[in-house]
């Protein structure tokens, strides 16, 4: 969980239990490999992908970062240029 502060354009303080706000959180990560999220598998609390290496399939555990449901940042576990298998 990440704490977020939201500011508004209201000039007077306003409190209500029934305020609804739509927010868009924009994050950035550098030096990560992005893969399609559907290539990511979960085993307990661990996540892994399948890599194709010299005609061999390897199950590789990875650490993940930000995602947008379509793509997930991989912060460690695979290198740029490695072939990730989508369906196995």
Structure notes:
There is one protein chain. The chain is an all-beta fold. It has a domain at about 35-85: conserved putative lor/sdh protein from methanococcus maripaludis s2 fold (Beta Barrel). Helices cover about 0% and strands about 40% of the residues. The chain has no helices and six strands. It has strands at about 35, 40-45, 45-55, 55-65, 70-75, 85. Strands 1, 2, 3, 4, 5 and 6 form a six-stranded antiparallel β-sheet that branches. Strand 3 (about 45-55) and strand 4 (about 55-65) form a beta hairpin. It is elongated, with a radius of gyration of 19 Å. The two termini are about 30 Å apart.
Mean pLDDT: 85
Largest sheet: number of strands, sense, barrel closure: 6 strands, antiparallel
Task: Tell me what portion of residues adopts beta-strand conformation.
Answer: 35-45%
What is the molecular shape?
Answer: elongated
Under the CATH scheme, which architecture of the domain at 33-85 would be assigned?
Answer: Beta Barrel
Report how far the terminal alpha carbons are from each other. Answer: 32 Å
State Rg.
Answer: 19 Å
Uncertain stretches of 5 or more adjacent residues: none
Order of helices and strands: EEEEEE
Oligomerization status of the protein chains: single chain
- Helical coverage, percent range: under 10%
List how many beta strands DSSP finds: 6
CATH class category of the domain at 33-85: Mainly Beta
Number of helices: 0
Q: SS-based structural class?
A: mainly beta
Task: Quote the CATH topology of the domain at 33-85.
Answer: conserved putative lor/sdh protein from methanococcus maripaludis s2 fold
């Amino acid at each position: 969980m990440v704490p977020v502060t939201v500011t508004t354009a209201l000039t007077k303080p306003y409190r209500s239990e029934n305020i609804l706000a739509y927010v868009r959180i924009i994050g950035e990560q550098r030096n990560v490999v992005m893969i399609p999220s559907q290539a990511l598998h979960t085993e307990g609390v661990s996540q892994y992908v399948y890599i194709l290496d010299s005609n061999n399939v390897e199950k590789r555990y990875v650490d993940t970062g930000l995602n947008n449901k379509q793509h997930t940042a991989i912060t460690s576990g695979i290198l740029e240029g490695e072939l990730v298998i989508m369906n196995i």
